[in-house]
């Protein structure tokens, strides 16, 4: 019979001994054992995860990019991290550029980007993070982070402008004017704007002055979305 099977193996890439022992039930002196070795091959995988980065900044400001590099393989990796700017803005590492990651381990990667103070027009700036294994350069990953850099010289319209139409209608009196019967006059102001994401949106209101039964000014407004 098989007396025991002992193994001590995990997911790490290395050799694991597996020992088999047998003995006789009637005579314990009759026994034997053998050990075989199981090799688990290395599977290398690294990946970036973005943690934080601003969507927009003003020109002349600096901003930080926070990411995390994870080892998703089953072997320890020595990794080199680099970064480049599509607009050649100065990029400074706030974290280590060389990392050693055990299987399942991750480490933070932080950058500081300095934007130019003089920018003729707003631009989309992209920083590309790259990481590769020292032992095997084919094991690599990258992450692109885009940020809008707004020019201080650019003119920004603070108002939202919607096309509007103003119409005026005049009605003659239905009977001879008295103190309680007057000419009716109506002003209508309508604004309408179509949205790319929605079918339509409209803002409208109207007012009339004076009416047949009421002397003076009446008004009402409606907001239609």
How are the secondary structure elements laid out?
Blueprint: E1 2-7, E2 15-23, E3 31-39, E4 46-52, E5 56-58, E6 62-71, E7 77-85, E8 91-93, E9 98-101, E10 106-114, E11 123-133, E12 140-150, E13 164-171, E14 184-193, E15 201-208, E16 218-224
Parallel strand pairs: 5-12
Antiparallel strand pairs: 1-2, 2-3, 4-6, 6-10, 7-9, 7-11, 8-10, 11-12, 13-14, 14-15, 15-16
Q: What would you say this structure looks like, in words?
A:
The protein is mostly beta strands. Helices cover 0% and strands 55% of the residues. It has strands at residues 2-7, 15-23, 31-39, 46-52, 56-58, 62-71, 77-85, 91-93, 98-101, 106-114, 123-133, 140-150, 164-171, 184-193, 201-208, 218-224. A hairpin with a 6-residue loop joins strand 11 (123-133) and strand 12 (140-150).
What keyword list fits this structure?
mainly beta, 4-stranded antiparallel beta sheet, disordered N terminus, 5-stranded mixed beta sheet, disordered C terminus, 225 residues
Radius of gyration: 38 Å
Cα distance spanning the termini: 81 Å
Mean pLDDT: 76
The helicity comes to under 10%
Shape: elongated
How does the major sheet shape up?
5 strands, mixed
Strand runs, count: 16
Largest sheet, spatial ordering of strands: 5-12-11-7-9
Short précis:
By secondary structure, this protein is mainly β. It has strands at 2-7, 15-23, 31-39, 46-52, 56-58, 62-71, 77-85, 91-93, 98-101, 106-114, 123-133, 140-150, 164-171, 184-193, 201-208, 218-224.
